[in-house]
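re the bet — no i am not wrong, look at it urself. input seq straight from the record:
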Amino acid sequence: MKKALKVTFGTMLAVSMAAPIAALAHEHHHHHHHGHAPYYDHLAVWVDGTYMKPTNNGLSVGDFAQPPFSNVGGLDGARNHMFLEPENEFDYGFGISVRLPHSHTRGFISYDHYQSDKDHQADINVRNLGIAPDVNAPTFETTNYDVNQHELRVGAIHDLHFGDHFCLDVLAFLEYDRLRQNVFETISRDNNANLRNRETENLIKGFGPGVGLVSRWFAHNPHWHVFAGANVVLLKTDNEYSQTFNVINDNIGNNQAGSYYDYEPFDSDSIVTKVDAQFGVNYHCKLKHELHGAQWGITLGMRYMNMINVLKNGNVYEQPTARRGGGAMGVPVDFSPNLGSAQDWGKWGPFIRFQVGGAHS
C-alpha cells in the first residue's frame, strides 16, 4: 500500500507540475506574437520513478549458530554473522530547470526521496544481545530495519558542445541531505522466559557543495542519446545517535530482568563524502506545431550512490554496558552494545524519468 501511495503521489506531482507549463505554452501559441521567447519557453520539469535497493554495508544483527552448539575446548563452535538484506523499493524524485536567455546555462532544483522498511520475523538460533541458543532451546530473533533519505540540490548546469554528436554537462550545486536509520531488535528464548530488545537510531543532516560531469553521445538520429556521469559532494553533517536496551524477562543465572540503558551521546559533526554515478539512454522529441514547439523526453537509467562513513554510531570509542537496575553497582549484562564503527550507506538501482519543457529549455 505504501508503495502504491508513493507511485501515485509521484505521478500527481508530475501532472501538477507539467499542467501549468503546458497551459502556458498553449496560451502562448495563440496569443504571443513578439519576436523574443517568453520566460516559460525556458522552463522544464521532470519526475523520476526509482526502484532502488539500499546497501546493508555489513549491518550485522547477531550471529547464526549451526548445531551442535559446541564450545568444547573453549571454541565458539560454527557461527556465521547474519546480515540484514534490504530489498528494492519504489520511490520518486522530481526537478525543475530554467535556461538563461541565449546561453548554455540552466539553473535547477531537484529532490530525491528514499524509504525502505525491512522486517525479519522469527529468525531461529541467532545469538544476539547476550542470549545464545542451546540444545532444545532455540532463540527467536525479530529485526525491523527502517531507513529514510531526502536529497535536495540547487545549482547550475552548463552544457559544452563538441560537434553534433558529443556534449558535456558541467554541474555545480549545493546539496542538503537527511538520512535516518533505525534498527529495532528483539530476541527471546525458553518460551519468552528470556526476552530482550534494543533500538538504535542514527540521524544525519548535512549541507555542502557538489560538482559533477555528465557526458552525452548523440546518435545520427537526433532523438536518441546515451549518457554517463558522476557527482561528488562534501557534506558538513550533524550526527545524532541514540540507543536503548532492555532486559524484559530473564532466567539466566542471577536474574537480570530490569537491566537497561538509554544512551544518547552529545551530537557530533563530521565531513561526509558522497558520490553518485548514473548512466542510461534518453529519447526526446520536439512537438513542431503543438504547444509552441514544446519538447518532451523519457530517460531510462541506472544510478549508484554511496555516502562514505556516514553512519557514525555516536562517533564514540567506548559504548556503555547495561547493568541490572541501571545502577553503577549492578550486574553487567554481557553483550556487545554497539553496531560497529562508522559505516557507509548507499543505494543503487534503475530509474525512469519523464521530462517536459518549453522550446528553449
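see?? Confidence is low (pLDDT under 50) at residues 19-35. told u. also The chain has one helix and 14 strands. so pay up
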